[in-house]
Write a structure and sequence with these properties.
The chain is built from ten helices and 14 strands. Helix content is 39%, strand content 19%. The protein has two domains: 196 residues, Isopropylmalate Dehydrogenase (3-Layer(aba) Sandwich), CATH 3.40.718; 131 residues, Isopropylmalate Dehydrogenase (3-Layer(aba) Sandwich), CATH 3.40.718.10. By secondary structure, the chain is α/β, with parallel strands linked by helices. The strands form three sheets. A ten-stranded mixed beta sheet has the order 2-1-4-14-13-6-7-12-10-11, with helices on both faces. Strands 3-5 form a two-stranded antiparallel ribbon. Bound molecules: 1,4-dihydronicotinamide adenine dinucleotide. 1,4-dihydronicotinamide adenine dinucleotide (NAI) binds next to loops.
């Protein structure tokens, strides 16, 4: 008798979210992934709902299933709306954001040898959103860095590096200016690094890191960053290999994990059948590995790579003219071929 498939929370998301989600489900189904889906819609967090996250059906579903696959969610700019993305990460204590950055065959990049992992602390820093008006015309925003969160993310990065045979970790910071906050972040990482003598550890100031990344990104292996620097630098890294439509991501905690693409809801192309589902398909592969379905993930990745090698059915963002659906059918064709 075969075991019951794991149930995963599915959040289609906004904008291009439903398009890339349905493409991803088609590929997973064609590959024979064993998953039962529980679909939930996420709505912007406004007013009282923000104070009662337990009541949120999205959070309740992920607490039940422990794993979610998520499309991008729009965060309206301005007051009154909290980011659901940030709320989910905080509420479920998804403290590690994990983004592998690798070029895909035939997608133009000046750096074909990049093989980077971006590890970003996901729960604090300026992202805590602690802002207030001191007096009209003066706003204060608090950057929170704690020993606990910094040590925990450092441990995650070093343990991952050891498991995956990665050789180097660079901590990215601005401790020359933010001596206390970024200074504490670095101090915690140095402590953890002592337990991993086989991994080469260095520190690089964030502005220099950005310049190095656009000139010689091959020098980096694993980047370890606070929340805000991580947000910015990981998009920069996506740009190095061809754009936001290509890079997968995972938000991981002790108990729960949400897998999602790096990109947002792309309102400029939503509904136009132009979205590239690659990032979400690769995020789903990370999820399958997390669920122990590594063989299925490997087959999907191989089919995706072959589709890129052939260059016939690529979406606009990577120089083709195929629709989301045609690209997806081409990946499925490679899976079944
Ligand atoms: P975005 O990532 O949605 O779009 C930036 C540019 O990249 C656009 O030109 C878009 O067309 C293109 N792009 C993004 N994904 C693509 C794909 N799969 N295929 C082809 N082209 C793609 O970033 P933006 O415009 O800053 O944000 C839009 C909304 O998304 C905002 O409300 C933002 O808060 C939200 N967002 C949500 C995220 C999440 O749910 N994890 C992450 C980032 C942004």
């Amino acid at each position: 008798m075969t075991a019951t498939p794991p149930v995963v929370t599915l959040i289609p998301g906004d904008g291009i979210g439903p398009e890339v989600t349905s493409a991803t489900l088609r590929v997973l189904e064609a590959a024979g992934a064993r998953i039962g889906w529980e679909e939930v819609a996420a709505k912007p967090i406004v007013g009282r709902r923000a104070e009662d996250p337990q009541a949120d059906p999205v959070i309740a579903s992920i607490r039940r299933n422990r794993v979610a696959l998520k499309g991008p969610l729009t965060t309206p700019v301005g007051t009154g709306h909290r980011s659901i993305n940030v709320a989910l990460r905080r509420e479920l204590d998804l403290y590690a954001n994990f983004r592998p950055v690798r070029p895909l065959p035939s997608v133009p990049t000046p750096f074909p040898a990049i093989d980077l992992i971006v590890v970003r602390e996901n729960t604090e820093d300026l992202y805590a959103g602690l802002e207030h008006i001191v007096v009209p015309g003066v706003v204060e925003s608090l950057k929170i860095i704690t020993e606990r969160a910094s040590t925990r993310i450092a441990r995650f990065a070093f343990e991952y590096a050891r498991r995956a045979g990665r050789k180097k970790i660079a901590a990215v910071h601005k401790a020359n200016i933010m001596k206390l906050s970024d200074g504490l972040f670095l101090e915690c990482i140095r402590q953890v690094a002592r337990g991993f003598p086989e991994i080469e550890y260095r520190e690089v100031i964030v502005d220099n890191c950005c310049m190095q990344l656009v000139m010689r990104p091959q020098q980096f292996d694993v980047l370890l960053l606070e929340n805000l620097y991580g947000d910015i630098v990981s998009d920069l890294c996506a740009g190095l290999v061809g754009g936001l439509g290509l890079v997968p991501g995972a938000n991981i905690g002790e108990t729960y994990a949400i897998f999602e693409a790096v990109h947002g809801s792309a309102p400029d192309i939503a509904g136009k059948h132009q979205a590239n589902p690659t990032a979400l398909i690769l995020s789903a592969c990370l999820m399958l590995k997390h669920l122990g379905q590594t063989e299925v993930a490997d087959r999907i990745e191989a089919a995706l790579y072959r589709t890129y090698e052939r260059r016939r059915h690529l979406t606009r963002d990577v120089g083709g003219d195929a629709s989301t659906e045609d690209f997806t059918s081409a990946v499925i064709g490679e899976l079944q071929g």
